[in-house]
Amino acid sequence: MSVPLLYExxxxxxxxxxxxxxxxxxxxxxxxxxxxxxxxxxHAPLPDGLGIDHRMAPEEFETYVELxxxxxxxxxxxxxxRLGLESDYFPxxxxxxxxxxxxxPLHHVLxxxxxxxxxxxxxxxTGDPYAYQQLYFTHLAESAETGLFDTLAHPDLxxxxxxxxxxxxxxxxxxxxxxxxxxxxxxxxxxxxxxxNKALPEMNPGPEMLGMIRERxxxxxxxxxxxxxxxxxxxxxxxxxxxxSLGFRTISFFLDRKRQDVAIADAxxxxxxxxxx
Length: 277
Known about the structure:
alpha/beta; TIM Barrel
């Protein structure tokens, strides 16, 4: 049997109000899939009640830390359970995020531009979907340049906001400019398998953007964005196969906020087949 190598680097808890199952249930699924570990990355709180309907409240942060610590103790010696965050980039909250990230030792901080949420749309959407896409990729680059994040989550998420208005050839120059900026920062990009369940059913990012990421030498972290235990490591085999077909040779994850790389061939060999949840 192969030695476990991979981590699930993107999953949630019920504290975000739209996920189901406790961290221990996610860890059990990780063990069944042959993962070395799992990094819980629930939606971080924001100030002033922003997004409170889909993320933990500031006063729940300690509860979150304790939930993950309990799962880590429960699965010690079986699955390496680590504490992380999915933290939003929303211009004006950088100082808040910096203080939050410093409160406890974190292993992986995902940076997300959630352009579909109410407070972001209210501030930035003018009725022009293409202009919104342009702004999204500008903010994606800005988020990398803050130094707050290890990995940028689902980096073409905006395509699912108005699928009929998504024209990759048209938006490509904006993506290229954003990726050029991101490449200079050393921040990784996520390949998020949950995109297969969205309005445009392909991983985030899609293969064209993923190829552009490879051309720039930007490292890639794999995440399922699991909001229920059964989705831990969902379609990792497909994701690793796609990366290999585009010329990637390694896949990354973060521990202690330091990147570690694993050969894709070894990662594939380490996974156990999907079984009933």
